[in-house]
Design brief:
two-stranded antiparallel sheet
Length: 144
């Protein structure tokens, strides 16, 4: 009896996996203009302990590849201040971010994002000012 119940479920799951795998995906062509991937989910990253010691700020700019599935791969740190302070945690978190991949003629397009800058402020929350491209502002308050 368990086999009869599990077999239809297994077949349904297999068909879902196969249908997802068959969604066409391609890379951006040279000199092709394609819309930027749209962020769907950007879970925050863990703040390194050394930054939580006092009033401080940090900034990191990332560039990443968005696959046709919306998953992030090939995360690159373009700039980081203080140097290296956020690199590992931000890169690890960015791999968990999800995007809506652009679609051209019914095909999902794999492409790099525009640079994403994350501003981190500890124990204060000023306006980071105008910035080019996508940016995220995180304000953290340490508890006494």
């Amino acid at each position: 009896m368990q086999i009869r119940i599990l077999a239809p479920i297994a077949l349904a799951l297999a068909s879902i996996v196969l249908s997802c795998a068959s969604v066409p995906t391609r890379d951006v062509l040279p000199n092709e203009t394609v819309a930027a991937p749209k962020p769907i989910s950007r879970p925050p990253f863990q703040i390194p302990a050394q930054l939580l010691q006092s009033e401080s700020e940090a900034r990191i700019t990332l560039d990443m590849m968005v696959e046709g599935s919306g998953r992030v791969s090939d995360v690159r740190v373009l700039n980081s201040e203080p140097e290296g302070a956020l690199d590992r945690n931000a890169s690890r978190a960015a791999r968990r971010w999800r995007y809506e991949a652009p679609v051209v003629d019914g095909v999902r397009v794999r492409r790099r994002t525009e640079p994403v800058t994350v501003y981190l402020f500890i124990n204060r929350c000023p306006d980071p000012g105008p910035g080019a491209g996508d940016h995220i502002k995180i304000c953290a308050q340490t508890l006494p």
